[in-house]
Amino acid sequence: MVIAVAVLILGVLLGALFLIPRNSAVAEKNRTNAADRKKVYGVYSKAEIALHDKRTDCWIIVKNRIFDVTSYVEEHPGGDAILTNAGSDSTEGFYGPQHPGGAFQLIEDYCIGELEK
Length: 117
Description:
By secondary structure, the protein is of the alpha+beta class. The protein has 5 helices and 5 strands; from the N terminus they run ααβαβββααβ. It has helices at residues 2-19, 25-38, 46-50, 91-94, 102-106; strands spanning 42-44, 53-54, 57-62, 65-68, 111-115. Strands 1-5-4-3-2 form a 5-stranded mixed beta sheet. Strand 3 (57-62) and strand 4 (65-68) form a beta hairpin. The radius of gyration is 19 Å and the shape is elongated. The N and C termini lie far apart (73 Å). Residues 1-25 form the signal peptide.
């Protein structure tokens, strides 16, 4: 009986170790990259944004603001859906029912500028 309880407690502790969110190296890198991107805030034309339409260089437009989401592409819960409008306007897709409220706060870290008027 004592052994069964000890095994159960050990199982719970090991499970918690893997389930409790921790700051990963990727998350830390994204925070650093977000801070670096904010330093280059600017105004961009649609032609400039269109050049950033790849998995390894992905910018999107949401409500006339520009977001460099390159470092987030691999983490995107919707997989490659984030690439559908890479280099162009993603406003309609971004405001779809698939995004939880947290997505609106998360994207702010990736803002690098605004669309040229």
